[in-house]
Amino acid sequence: MAKSTIKIRAREKDGVVTVKCLISHPMETGSRKDKKTGKLIPAHYITEVTAESNGEKKLTAYWGGGISKNPYLSFKYDGKKGDKVKLSWVDNQGQSDSLETTVK
Amino acid sequence: MNEHRRLFLKGTLAIGALSVAAGAGLLTPGDVLAAWPEAAFKAKTVDDALKGLMGGAAFESSDAINVKAPDIAENGAVVPITVSSSLKDVTNIAILASANPSPLTSAYELGKGTHAYISTRIKMGKTGDVIAIVKSGGKVYGAKKQVKVTIGGCGG
Q1: CA-based max dimension of chain B
Q2: What is the pLDDT of residue B31?
Q3: Is A47 close to B35, i.e. CB distance below 8 A?
Q4: Which of A25, B52, B89, B122 could form an SS bridge with B105, CB 3.0 to 4.6 Å?
Q5: Mean pLDDT throughout A2-14?
Q6: For chain B, which residues make up each domain, given as ranges?
Q7: Are strands A6-13 and B79-85 parallel, antiparallel or unpaired?
Q8: Is B125:B153 a contact under the CB 8 Å cutoff?
Q9: Is residue A13 part of a domain?
Q10: A76 located within any domain
Q11: Nearest residue on chain A to B29, judged by CA atoms?
Q12: Domains held by chain A: number
């Protein structure tokens, strides 16, 4: 199995789950030039990230090129230990990935 | 004669751009990308981005929104931003960087039980305001924080 582009850490404390995730992605805006050739580097960025817990949608993030390379995202929701958290992303070139983890 | 030629070129270019956009849409799972607010992300000004996102550019300044960002960002390519709010029934959060070529960096839809808390890292082309927009109970609130950028992060 290919290595996932996503890293998630989900921790529960006092009934609140904090999810932190990192995605490896170039996040090219499409307005940057290649220094060697002087040509524009084509845009390549994540447009949508969705997070589900036990099948229920918790967060939908719409991103543009203004998000940093190898994006970081953190959010909180009311939940408990043992919850399943699934994160998926789609980019403007049609690539995608997803990963599921269990809340600790 | 020349002018006609110019018009014709413009027309074909516009059609070309449209079909490329449609092609990109077909390649990705349609229902997912359909919701991506393209006009808001392509907008060049904060007002236009807000119009594209919510239909109106007006928002009420609120102390209940907390924008955590560095006062000075040494590297504009990675600026950590945390937006949190004590407002109730928050359904949407958006983060904009006013000085960027396309101000809207990201927009979030919060599900049931999700706290009004988002932390991420954005790019900033130059010194400007980070604007956090929070939609709570159908009303739109906003807060700003200025961030000084010493090295831009938008390939300038």
Answers
A1: 63
A2: 40
A3: no
A4: B122
A5: 88
A6: 1-36, 43-151
A7: unpaired
A8: yes
A9: yes
A10: yes
A11: A94
A12: 1
